[in-house]
Amino acid sequence: MSTDQRAVEHGWLADLRASLADDFATQTARLRELTELNADTGDPGEAHNHAALLAVTRRHLEQITGALSRIADGSYGACERCRESIPAERLEVLPHVRFCVPCQEKHKG
Question: What distances in angstroms separate CA 54 from CA 30, 46, 47, 81, 92, one per listed residue?
Answer without folding.
Answer: 9, 12, 11, 29, 26
